[in-house]
Amino acid sequence: xxxxxRRDFIKAGxxxxxxxxxxxxxxxxxFAAGTDEIKIALIGCGGRGTGAAxxxxxxxxxxxxVAMADAFQDNLESTYATLKEKFGDKVDVPxxxxxxxxxxxxxxxxxxxxxxxxxPPGFRPVHFEEAVKAGKHVFMEKPVAVDIPGIHKVxxxxxxxxxxxLNVVVGLQRRYQANYREAIKRIQDGAIGDVYxxxxxxxxxxxxxxxxxxxxxEMEYQMRNWYYFNWxxxxxxxxxxxxxxxxxxxxxxxxxxxxxxxxSRAHRTGKEYGEIYxxxxxxxxxxxxxxxxxxxxxxxxxxxxxxxxxQASKGRxxxxxxxxxxxxxxxxxEIYRHDTKGNPNPxxxxxxxxxxAIAKNEYKFDNTEYGAYSTLTGIIxxxxxxxxxxxxxxxxxxxxxxxxxxxxxxxxxPKIVPNENGEYPAAIPGINTELYI
Length: 437
Fold this sequence. Notes:
This protein folds into two domains: about 40-175 and about 365-370, NAD(P)-binding Rossmann-like Domain (Rossmann fold), CATH 3.40.50.720; about 180-345 and about 405-430, Dihydrodipicolinate Reductase, domain 2, CATH 3.30.360.10. Helices cover about 30% and strands about 20% of the residues. It has helices at about 10-15, 45-55, 75-85, 105-110, 125-135, 150-165, 180-190, 220-225, 235-240, 240-250, 345-360, 370-385, 395; strands spanning about 25, 40-45, 65-70, 100, 115, 135-140, 170, 195-205, 260-265, 280-285, 290-300, 305-310, 315-320, 325-330, 335, 360-365, 390. The strands form three sheets. It has a nine-stranded mixed β-sheet with strand order 15-14-13-12-8-11-10-9-17. A hairpin with a 4-residue loop joins strand 14 (about 325-330) and strand 15 (about 335). Helix 2 packs across helix 11 (about 345-360) and helix 10 (about 240-250) crosses helix 12. The two termini are about 25 Å apart. The relative contact order is 0.17.
């Protein structure tokens, strides 16, 4: 079967864990002789990278951080100081194993057994490729790419990871969150019948802006403000809303066949917001006629919403990252309410399960396919809104639009640069659509 066109999940593992799709298969030991120590490398030393390192240390296994890499020296040194103060001798990263620059990841990966990939997502495909070719287990943050060539690369490398029995966990942490696991297991077991509609949301106030400094090249400015440039971020429908989109695909057990929608720059219109939109409203249409409505926005000062709801032939369900999950039957009677007390932190749980499998020399986790396809769903949603067109899943997969720069250097320019007024071109449906598909 052509994996680039396959839409159905392998459900055998989702009922158990929502994330693991493999039986426990022995793998070669990652440990040095006479020790149970697992050496990790952190690639990307921003806030998410720091958090991922904390989560790895909370896994309960004998973890040692031995290498770090980041494009920026200040990011790396700040994260190193934070981790060293908290974890002491568990952080063994002398200056000789603190790698700075675009190529630092290559050296850091060689030093470790497990690699944490937490850079801006535009770098994910090439970093994932390097880690797998070096034979390393991987935790990689979502999303796993920002364009369709990147998706193809990730899926191709996933096959190599499977052949090498390398565990791969993707940071779509709802897959490791107790309320989602319990509720979606019940849905898949038929508790509310066939799901025929849904709504998924990430409406919030947006994220940080880092003012331009006089000494910065264009490459450095965009790297510092990576959220506002598609070659680094993919827009917030991909970088952030992928969580909720992934829940829709998980609930349905398949992927959309077509996507259409609308979006714009309505409030965050200044040049400091780069090229991305601040709102998207998208319809995900599945092959059985189900339509899931997807909404995300970055508007300050108005109501926020981050959750998912679905309607089915025998009832409905409400889900949220706050550990809530409620199922009702067709008459509105509550048939399940998740107990929110004592639920493990899902960010820590994904690391706990990954490192437990590695410590036992088991091959259990291949999250790459659903991570890639849910990322792809967000990418197609972005393309649909940027172009104003209905985008078919299989047609989208033929896109060759590669957003990455032709070279990675501080004096090189990304493909999108500002005009004489410092303003970046943004998508205008029906006008400049050739740039996007």
